[in-house]
Specification:
The chain has 6 helices and no strands. It has one domain (about 5-110). It is elongated and about 55 Å long. The longest helix is centred in the C-terminal third of the chain and has 35 residues, at about 75-110. By secondary structure, it is an all-alpha fold.
Length: about 110
Amino acid sequence: MNPTSQEYFADVAEIAKEALRQEREESADAFDALHEGVDGTQWVIYHWRQALVLQFSSNEDAMFDAGADLSSCKSWGEATQVAAFYAMLADAQEALEELRSQQEEEEEVQQ
């Protein structure tokens, strides 16, 4: 069974929700929580899923924006892992910002 973009973005949303929860309830750094969440996903660990991340994400070039150094990569698999990580991290950052905006709007309505 091939994973779908819907499954990918559901996982991205869960990572963002958990990062926001950690930020609000535990005073954790949300970026660190996102980084940790993305780093442990099957989307970044498994080579065949890494290619899907780069297909599904609109942030496939995020590694260049982040200044990732690919000089230590010794294989295509290592390079795609780096690319998939930064693409998914950028997707999770976007999802986190959207969640923050939604919560701010809800808090304003409640006041």
